[in-house]
Specification:
The complex is a heterodimer of chains A (277) and B (129).
Chain A (H helix, E strand, L loop, with lengths): L1 E3 L4 H7 L4 E4 L5 H6 L7 E4 L8 E2 L2 E3 L4 H5 L6 H8 L4 H6 L2 H5 L6 H4 L13 H4 L20 H9 L2 E4 L3 E3 L23 E5 L5 E7 L10 E8 L2 E7 L6 E3 L15 H17 L1
Parallel strand pairs in A: 1-3, 2-3
Antiparallel strand pairs in A: 4-5, 5-8, 6-7, 6-8, 9-10, 10-11, 11-12
Helix pairs in contact in A: 4-9
Chain B lengths: L4 H8 L18 E4 L2 E4 L13 E2 L8 H8 L9 H14 L5 H7 L10 H9 L4
């Protein structure tokens, strides 16, 4: 396998595609390469190409979660989401851009069952063991989106800049369909370069985990209050970060037998988060 | 896939103090410092290390934490201990008198199968004694 380290965005974009994949912190990609879930002849290391650092509301996509969690310029929902996202070592390695693109923790997908996300015609989780899975939008694929920062950024109304467009963080994601199994709208070779996160009046991130310290969310709830109202987004709830308009929207959830408990957790956390902002 | 930092340390350089346990970035046994920051060497491709300084447990032989781990009897099987001491060294380097909460937050990425956590915490609280 060949590793390149381009020094500009243009060089990095040109190097991608044709069996080459982008590497930032590596906490997601390296295990996926080792397990054969991602196959690549060439790895393009983005450390010198993608911006890193925080300047007011702007965040380089190469900024690590550890850098975000301690910076007073960052809204508290995003800081807390980063702080709770992973172990200290993973937070020191992982970048915010990479975090937004992480794959599901669905064990069927990770074990390469021929599920719908892998192009197959079944959701093994819906039929099988799914206590860590979705309770919204689970009819095609029951995976749950694992990113805490993604939910925080959706609630905060964050924007993304890629090498070719600007878009709200919420529009980075799409539900997988029969015709397109991808969970993001990123084009092949498209690179996330920068985020812009407007300062809210108040924001909070609350997370239920299987254990007290870091693990993937059972449910994460981000709430941000801005001049134009309150926004709520959930992690661990649907195959993509899931925005709801109010607590009442939880009545429209479609839990699986094994994820009904998550709805109770979500309801409690949404109430608590709304009370805090 | 290219070689990891861990494979290079243990295989090429003979520095076998850094341990491999889960091999997928969950447990912290393979923790080393890159320019003083704890990272997981089992999921770090060696060619991405560049000019950064690597500190392994071999480089911390004289660190007071080694003695405080012995004093506090902060291990049973000892397999996670190199990673524990490397992470703890970064913590006390940045925060010389960490609180219990700071220790628990900072050490959360180092899992101990024997459950020696209370004594690990004790060793870090008393590292300068």
């Amino acid at each position: 396998m060949e590793l390149s380290r381009p020094s500009t965005v243009d060089e990095a974009v040109a190097a991608l595609g044709n069996g080459a994949v982008a590497l930032a912190g590596g906490t997601e990609l390296v295990p996926l390469l080792r397990d054969g879930l991602v196959r690549a002849d060439r790895v393009v290391h983005l450390a010198d190409a993608v911006p890193r650092g925080i300047d007011g509301t702007r965040i380089g996509a190469g900024t690590t979660l550890a850098e975000l969690e301690v910076d007073p310029q960052i809204p508290s929902a995003l800081r807390e989401a980063c702080r709770l996202a992973a172990s200290p070592q993973l937070r020191s390695m992982g970048t915010i851009g990479g975090n937004l693109l992480q794959a599901t923790r669905c064990w069927y997908w990770r074990l390469e069952f021929p599920c719908r996300l892998h192009g197959g015609d079944r959701c093994h989780a819906a039929e099988g063991v799914h206590r860590e899975h979705a309770f919204f939008a689970s009819d095609f694929c029951a995976s749950a989106h694992p990113s805490d920062p993604a939910a925080a950024l959706v609630a905060l109304g964050g924007m993304l800049r890629t090498d070719r467009r600007e878009l709200p963080v919420a529009e980075l994601y799409r539900l997988p369909t029969e015709d397109d199994r991808s969970t993001t709208t990123l084009a092949p070779g498209e690179l996330i370069l920068e985020l812009d996160v407007p300062a809210p009046e108040a924001s909070v991130y609350l997370k239920a985990m299987d254990r007290r310290r870091w693990s993937f969310p059972i449910v994460g709830v981000a709430v941000a209050r801005a001049a134009d109202g309150v926004r709520i987004a959930l992690a661990g709830a649907a195959p993509i970060p899931w925005a709801i308009a109010s607590e009442a929207d939880l009545d429209g959830a479609t839990p699986l037998p094994g994820t009904a408990y998550k709805l109770d957790v979500a309801r409690a956390l949404v109430r608590r988060a709304l009370a805090e902002v | 896939m290219g070689a990891t930092l861990l494979e290079t340390l243990r295989g090429e350089l003979g520095l076998s103090g850094t341990k491999i346990a889960c091999g997928e970035g969950h447990c912290g046994a393979c923790t080393v410092l890159l320019d003083g920051v704890p990272v997981l060497s089992c999921i770090t491709l060696v060619h991405t290390v560049g000019e950064r300084e690597v500190t392994t447990i071999e480089g911390l032989r004289e660190h007071p934490l080694v003695r405080s781990f012995v004093r506090a009897d902060a291990l049973q099987c000892g397999f996670c201990t190199p990673g524990q001491i490397v992470s703890a060294a970064a913590l006390v380097g940045a925060v010389p008198e960490p609180s219990r909460e700071e220790i628990r937050h900072h050490m959360a990425g180092n899992i101990c199968r024997c459950g020696a956590y209370p004594r690990i915490e004790e060793a870090i609280l008393t590292w300068r004694d």
